[in-house]
Amino acid sequence: MSIYFTKYQGLGNDFILIDNRHQITPIITPELAVLMCDRNFGIGADGVIFALPGENGSDYTMRIYNSDGSEPEMCGNGIRCLAQFIAEIEGDAPIGKTYQIQTLAGVICPRLEADEQVTVDMGYPQLKAQEIPTTLVSADNQVINEPLEIAQTTWLVTCVSMGNPHCITFVEDVAAIPLATLGPKFEHHTVFPSRTNTEFIQVIRPDYIKMLVWERGAGATLACGTGACASVVAGVITNKIDRKCTVELPGGCLNIHWSDTDQRVYMTGPAKKVFTGCYL
Ligand SMILES: N[C@@H](CCC[C@H](N)C(=O)O)C(=O)O
User: Fold this and answer.
1) Catalytic positions, please?
2) Which CATH class is domain 3-123+270-279?
3) In a structure prediction context, what are the per-residue pLDDT tens digits for the chain, which is 280 residues long?
């Protein structure tokens, strides 16, 4: 079967987008997604995203496979790419157009902006989500600045769900973090029953942080939208940063705003088409 696709990237977090509007289940298996994501033997990507028909009154449904074939609940950079992809396949979508996208984390709303930017209403962050590890929990069923022993070091971790799980640690210098060694140890630690995404954060100023990410099911990536949102929430609740904050990732910057009016998190960043192709 030949599969037509379009490759998009958001700050170097790259995805294979598939027009799946004709059926309500993804047209490829997780096993095939792994092959397509392979950077040597396939197309190369951090994940595969499907634009499916909308459910429960939404415009579209988004499903995503990570590059290891696992299925996450949400993807921040991915939903910006999906919004641009939908605009392209629908044709003629004006700036300001907003889509209601059903995801496994609920309905998420991206809005098209000028210059290939997309602003996404990412919804409410959760500090007590199901996938947050109970073994780490202290007061009020939350994990805020709790000690976690990994690689002979005690890390103070804060866990935030943006629909998918994030474990955030504030460090002095992200450049000193051996991500490839530490990342898998966090991801597969027994306290995280659903595995976890892991963010290492260096505060430069209260309105500017640097972030390194190890993604569940994808490893080190150049950017993670849900991770940037979760990290700003973690920084605010630990009194380190402002509610409006720029997050610098290896692939570039995201602007995050955790609104104190409606308590929702808003993310703005780019999403760009790279090429189209046919996987044989
Ligand atoms: N890169 C994404 C997150 C993708 C899902 C993640 N790997 C998970 O398993 O939760 C983003 O931009 O949010």
Assistant:
1) 75, 224
2) alpha beta
3) 899 999 999 999 999 999 999 999 999 999 999 999 999 999 999 999 999 999 999 999 999 999 999 999 999 999 999 999 999 999 989 999 999 999 999 999 999 999 999 999 999 999 977 777 767 766 577 899 999 999 999 999 999 999 999 999 999 999 999 999 999 999 999 999 899 999 999 999 999 999 999 999 999 999 999 999 999 999 999 999 999 999 999 999 999 999 999 999 999 999 999 999 999 9
Residue nearest to atom 1 of ligand 1 (CA): 224
Report the distance separating Cα 107 and Cα 114, nearest Å.
23
Q: Do domains 3-123+270-279 and 134-263 have the same CATH topology?
A: yes
Q: Where along the chain do its domains lie?
A: 3-123+270-279, 134-263
Q: Does domain 134-263 have CATH number 3.10.310.10?
A: yes
- Rounded to 10 degrees, the C-alpha dihedral 184/204/173/268 comes to 20
- Tokens of residue 280, six digits: 């044989």
196: Cβ below 6 Å to ligand 1?
A: no
Q: Report the distance separating Cα 251 and Cα 234, nearest Å.
A: 21
